Amino acid sequence: MLIERIEQHFQDSASTKLAALEVLAAPIAAAIDTIFAAFANGGKVLICGNGGSAADAQHLAAELIGRFEQERPALPAIALTTDSSVLTAIGNDYSFAQIFARQVSGLGQPGDILIAISTSGNSENVLAAIESAHEREMLVIALTGKGGGRIKGALHETDLHICAPSERTARIQEVHSLTVHCLCDGIDAMLLGDR
Question: CA 174 to CA 182: how far, in whole Å?
Answer without folding.
Answer: 12
